[in-house]
From TrEMBL, chain A:
Family: Belongs to the CCDC22 family.
Keywords: Coiled coil
Domain (CCDC22 N-terminal) ranges: 1-109
UniProt GO molecular function: cullin family protein binding
Lineage, opening ranks: Eukaryota, Metazoa, Chordata, Craniata, Vertebrata
Species this chain originates from: Denticeps clupeoides
Name of the protein described by the UniProt record: Coiled-coil domain-containing protein 22
UniProt gene name: CCDC22
From TrEMBL, chain B:
One family name in Pfam for this protein: COMM_HN
Family statement: Belongs to the COMM domain-containing protein 3 family.
Domain COMM: 123-193
Name of the gene encoding the protein in the UniProt record: COMMD3
PROSITE patterns hit by this protein: COMM
The species this protein was found in: Denticeps clupeoides (denticle herring)
Top-level taxon in the UniProt lineage: Eukaryota
GO biological process: sodium ion transport
Lineage start: Eukaryota, Metazoa, Chordata, Craniata, Vertebrata
Record-linked PANTHER family: COMM DOMAIN-CONTAINING PROTEIN 3 (PTHR31159:SF1)
CDD domains, per the entry: Commd3 (cd04751)
Protein name in the entry: COMM domain-containing protein 3
Transmembrane residue ranges: none
Length: 639, 195
C-alpha cells in the first residue's frame, strides 16, 4: 500500500496540493488535507465544478458539513461509484479515502502528454529562451563597473551600440542578372575592381546590417516571385523568362502611357515645358530599355523640345555655375549688397527666362505650323499620285480598244471566244477547288480537334502540376515542423530530470505482477488440493456407507440367529452413530473457526475505521452545532 | 536556415573541390570570418592561396560564406543545424568540420557584433543622493519639508559607453513611488525569468 500512497501523494503534489514532506501515507491525511486535495483535483479535472469550492475547511461546523456535502455531490457528478457523503471527508477512514483519491487522480487530465504532441509555437520557444536568458543574467552577481572583467561587461552593460544602417551591396553573379546576359566588361569589373562585400559599406559598423539586409531582400524577392509564378505564371503557359519579359513589357507600356497622358494634359503651359522634356527623356530611356524607340517614333514634339532644352541646358548650367562662383567670394559683403545683387541677378535671370520662353514659343509655333504643312503636302502628294495611276489605267484601256477597232467583227468573235474560254476555265477551276477544298476542310477540323484535345490535356497537366507544387510545399512544411518538434523534444528530453522513479515503478510493477502470478499458482495448487481432499472425503464416505451397509446386512442376518451377535449389531449401530456425530462435530468446528476468522477480520476493519474516535468527533461536532444553533436562536430572540 | 539563390550558388561552388582545394577553402573560410568579425579591414582576399583563383568566384563565395555566418549567428544555430545545412550543398565532412570549428571559435565575436546593432537605454551604474531640508522659501515662511537630490551615474550604449549623470530632485512621496516602481520592475523581471 505504501507504493500506492506514494504515487498518490506525488500526483496530488503535482495537482497543486500542499502535502507536507512528513506525510507518507494516506493514513496520515488530516481532514483539512483531504479536503484540499479533493478540491485541487476537482479544479484540475473540471474548473467549473471545482472553482465554487474552497480548498480550506471553514471553521464553522455547519459550513464544514455543507462543504462536505457539496464535495460528495461533486465527486458523484464525476462518476464516483463508491459510498460517499460528508462523513467521508469529515470523519475519514483510510480505505474510503484511498479509493476516492485513486479515482480522482485517475481522472486528472494528462495535459503534459497531450501538450508534448504539438510543437510549441515559435513565440513560446522564444519566450522560454528569453526567460532562460533573464534567469542566467539574474543569477550573475552584480559587480560595480570598475571591478568588471571584459567577460562580464557584455552582460551587465550595454556595450557600444549602433543603429541598423544598411547599404546596397554588389555581389558577383547576383541572382537578379542572368549569367548569360553579363557582358565582358561586367565580368571584368567583378574580377578586377569589385571590393569584397565586407569592405563595400562605407562604415565598418554597417557590414552585418548590410549583409543581412541584402540576404533578406533576395530571399523575399525569390519568395514573391515563386508565389506569383505559382498563382499566375503557371496558368499563362509561358516559360519563366517569357513570362518575365512579358510582364516587364506590360509594365513599361503602362508607365509610358501614364507618363504620356500626364505630359499631354498641359501641352502649352510654360511651367510644364521643362518637366515634359524630362518626361520625354524618361520615356526615351524606358523605350530604350525595351529595345527600339518604336513607341515614341511619333512623338515629334517631345523630341523637338528635348533637343531644344538639351542645347539650352549646358549654357544655363554654365551661367548658374558662373553666378555661383561670383557670389562665393563676395559672401562676406554686407547683406543689403548681397540682396541687391541677388535681386539684380534674379531679374536678369527672369528676363533671360522670359526671352528664352518667348523664343521657344515662337520656334514651337513655327515648328507646329511647318509640321502641319508638311503633313498636308504629303497628303496632297499621295492623292495626286493616286489620281495619276487611275488616269494611266484608263488611258491604257482606251488605247487597247482603239487598237482593236479596225477589224471589229473578227476581233469581236475572238473576244467572245476568249470570254467563253475564260468562263469555262473558271468553272473548271471552281470544281477543282471544290475537290481540293473538302479534304482540306476535313484536315482543318481534325487539327482543330487535336488542338483542343491538347489544350485540355495541358490544362489537366497544369492543374496536376499545381497540386504537386502544393503537395511539395505542404510536405516540406510538415517535414520542417516535424524536425523542429523532434529537436524540441530532444532538448526537452535532455533537460528532463532523469528520475529513477519511473524505472523503479516499472520494476516494482513487474515484481508485483510476478508476485501475483506466484500467488495465483499457489491458489490454484491449494484449490486442487482442496478438490482432491474433497474427492477423497467423498470416496471415503461412499466406502464407509457401503462397508457399513454390507456389515449391517451381514450382522443383521447373523443377529437373527444368534443373541450375542445381536448385541454386536447394536454396538455397531451405536458406533456408526457416534462416528457420524463426531464427523458432524468436526465439521461444525471448521465452520465456527471460519466464522471466527471472518469476525476477526471484520473487527479489524472496523477498528481501522477509527469508529470510536470518529464517533467522539461526531459527538463533539454535534455539540458544536447545537451550540451554534443555540447562539443563533439567542441572537434571533435578541433581535 | 533559408538561404537565397546567390548564397546557395556560392556555397555550391565553395563545396566543389575543383574550384577550391582544401588549403584554398581554409583560407577563404578564414577570410570570411575575418571579414565579418573585423569589418572594413583591407586586403582580405590577398591570401596567396586565393590570389591565383578566379577573383569573381572568390568574391562570390566570400559573400556567401559571410552571409551564412551571420545568418547562423542570428538564428543561434547549433553545430548540427549548420552541418546539415552545409551537407545539403555537398560539403564533405572535412570542410563541414572546418567551417563549424571556425564558427564555434568566432561565434561569441559574431554574436557580440550582432548584439551591438540597435539602441538601448542608458544603464544606471551608480547612484548618490543628498537630503535637503527646506525650512522656508521666497513665498512661504515655513515649509519644513525634506527633499532628495538624487544623481544617477549612467552609462549609455550609443555613445560608446561613456559615463554621464542624470540629476533630479524629488519629494519623499515621489521617491517612494520611484522605489516602489523599481521593486515592481525587479519583481516582474523575476516572474519573467520563471515562466
Amino acid at each position: 500500500m505504501e507504493e500506492v500512497d506514494r504515487i498518490l501523494i506525488h500526483s496530488l503534489r503535482q495537482a497543486g496540493t500542499d502535502v507536507g514532506d512528513e506525510v507518507e501515507s494516506i493514513k496520515q491525511f488530516s481532514s483539512e488535507l483531504i479536503v484540499e486535495a479533493v478540491v485541487r483535483c476537482l479544479r484540475a479535472i473540471d474548473p467549473a465544478l471545482g472553482n465554487g469550492l474552497s480548498p480550506s475547511l471553514p471553521p464553522g461546523m455547519s459550513a464544514r458539513f455543507r462543504l462536505g456535502m457539496s464535495l460528495a455531490q461533486a465527486c458523484q457528478d464525476l462518476g464516483y461509484k463508491g459510498e460517499i457523503g460528508y462523513q467521508t471527508f469529515l470523519y475519514s477512514n483510510e480505505p474510503e479515502i484511498r479509493s476516492l483519491l485513486m479515482f480522482l487522480v485517475e481522472k486528472l487530465p494528462r495535459e503534459s502528454s497531450e501538450a508534448s504532441d504539438q510543437p510549441a509555437g515559435k513565440s513560446v520557444l522564444l519566450q522560454k529562451a528569453i526567460a532562460a536568458q533573464i534567469k542566467a543574467q539574474l543569477a550573475l552577481p552584480w559587480l560595480p563597473p570598475n571591478c568588471r572583467l571584459p567577460l562580464h561587461s557584455k552582460q551587465q552593460s550595454p556595450g557600444p551600440c549602433h543603429n541598423f544602417y544598411s547599404q546596397p551591396l554588389c555581389v558577383p553573379y547576383s541572382a537578379r542578372v542572368a549569367q548569360k546576359k553579363q557582358s565582358k566588361e561586367v565580368i571584368e569589373y567583378y574580377r578586377d575592381f569589385l571590393a569584397p562585400v565586407t569592405t563595400q559599406p562605407s562604415q565598418p559598423m554597417s557590414v552585418p546590417a548590410s549583409l543581412l539586409e541584402h540576404h533578406a531582400s533576395e530571399l523575399s524577392a525569390t519568395q514573391e516571385w515563386e508565389s506569383e509564378w505559382n498563382s499566375q505564371g503557371l496558368l499563362s503557359r509561358l516559360t519563366p523568362e517569357e513570362y518575365r519579359s512579358r510582364k516587364r513589357a506590360r509594365l513599361q507600356k503602362r508607365i509610358v502611357e501614364q507618363l504620356r497622358a500626364a505630359a499631354q494634359n498641359r501641352p502649352d503651359s510654360q511651367a510644364t515645358q521643362r518637366s515634359s522634356s524630362d518626361l520625354a527623356e524618361l520615356l526615351q530611356s524606358f523605350s530604350g530599355a525595351m529595345a527600339g524607340g518604336e513607341v515614341l517614333s511619333k512623338g515629334t514634339r517631345f523630341t523637338h523640345t528635348e533637343k531644344f532644352t538639351f542645347t539650352q541646358e549646358p549654357e544655363k548650367a554654365a551661367q548658374q555655375m558662373a553666378a555661383a562662383a561670383s557670389s562665393l567670394p563676395t559672401s562676406r559683403q554686407s547683406e543689403e549688397e548681397l540682396q541687391a545683387q541677388q535681386q539684380a541677378e534674379l531679374s536678369d535671370v527672369q528676363q533671360q527666362l522670359q526671352q528664352l520662353s518667348i523664343q521657344m514659343e515662337e520656334v514651337g509655333g513655327e515648328m507646329r505650323r511647318l509640321t502641319v504643312s508638311i503633313s498636308q503636302m504629303s497628303d496632297e502628294l499621295k492623292q495626286r499620285e493616286l489620281s495619276n495611276a487611275e488616269k494611266e489605267d484608263t488611258v491604257r484601256i482606251k488605247k487597247q480598244t482603239i487598237d482593236l477597232l479596225p477589224d471589229a467583227e473578227n476581233n469581236l468573235v475572238k473576244l467572245q471566244n476568249l470570254v467563253e474560254a475564260s468562263a469555262k476555265r473558271v468553272v473548271h477551276l471552281a470544281s477543282q477547288w471544290e475537290k481540293h477544298r473538302a479534304p482540306l476542310i476535313e484536315e482543318h477540323r481534325r487539327l482543330k480537334e487535336l488542338c483542343s484535345n491538347r489544350e485540355i490535356e495541358s490544362s489537366r497537366m497544369l492543374s496536376e502540376i499545381k497540386n504537386l507544387h502544393d503537395k511539395i510545399r505542404q510536405s516540406a512544411d510538415e517535414a520542417k515542423k516535424k524536425e523542429e518538434l523532434y529537436k524540441q523534444l530532444t532538448t526537452e528530453y535532455e533537460h528532463m530530470p532523469k528520475d529513477v522513479s519511473r524505472s523503479a515503478y516499472t520494476l516494482r510493477i513487474l515484481e508485483i505482477v510476478g508476485n501475483i502470478k506466484k500467488q495465483k499458482e499457489e491458489i490454484t495448487k491449494i484449490l486442487s488440493d482442496t478438490k482432491e481432499l474433497q474427492k477423497e472425503i467423498n470416496g471415503l464416505t461412499g466406502k464407509l456407507d457401503r462397508t457399513f451397509a454390507v456389515t449391517d446386512e451381514l450382522v443383521f442376518k447373523d443377529a437373527k440367529k444368534e443373541e450375542s451377535v445381536r448385541k454386536s449389531y447394536k454396538y455397531l449401530a451405536a458406533l456408526h452413530e457416534n462416528c457420524t456425530q463426531l464427523i458432524q462435530t468436526i465439521e461444525d468446528t471448521g465452520t465456527i473457526m471460519r466464522e471466527v476468522r471472518d469476525l476477526e477480520e471484520q473487527i479489524e476493519s472496523e477498528n481501522s475505521k477509527k469508529t470510536v474516535t470518529n464517533l467522539e468527533k461526531i459527538l463533539e461536532d454535534y455539540k458544536a452545532i447545537r451550540q451554534e444553533n443555540m447562539v443563533l436562536a439567542a441572537k434571533m430572540k435578541e433581535a | 536556415m533559408e538561404l537565397s539563390e546567390s548564397v546557395q550558388k556560392g556555397l555550391r561552388r565553395l563545396a566543389d573541390p575543383a574550384a577550391f582545394d582544401a588549403a584554398r577553402f581554409a583560407a577563404l573560410v578564414e577570410a570570411a570570418f575575418a571579414g565579418v568579425t573585423r569589418p572594413g579591414s583591407e586586403a582580405l582576399l590577398d591570401h596567396p592561396e586565393l590570389k591565383h583563383a578566379d577573383q569573381a568566384l572568390v568574391k562570390l563565395c566570400h559573400a556567401a560564406a559571410a552571409t551564412v555566418i551571420l545568418e547562423a549567428a542570428k538564428q543561434n544555430a547549433d553545430r548540427s543545424t549548420i552541418s546539415s545545412c552545409l551537407e545539403e550543398f555537398k560539403f564533405d565532412a572535412g570542410r563541414t568540420d572546418l567551417f563549424c570549428d571556425s564558427y564555434q571559435k568566432h561565434k561569441k565575436a559574431v554574436e557580440n557584433l550582432l548584439a551591438g546593432i540597435g539602441g538601448s537605454p542608458p544603464h544606471i551604474t551608480d547612484v548618490s543622493w543628498r537630503l535637503e531640508y527646506c525650512i522656508k522659501n521666497g513665498y512661504v515662511h515655513k515649509v519644513n519639508q525634506p527633499s532628495y537630490l538624487i544623481s544617477f551615474n549612467v552609462q549609455s550604449g550609443v555613445s560608446g559607453g561613456s559615463p554621464s549623470e542624470v540629476n533630479f530632485n524629488c519629494t519623499t512621496e515621489q521617491l517612494q513611488d520611484l522605489v516602489g516602481k523599481m521593486k515592481d520592475a525587479a519583481k516582474s523581471l523575476e516572474k519573467a525569468a520563471q515562466s
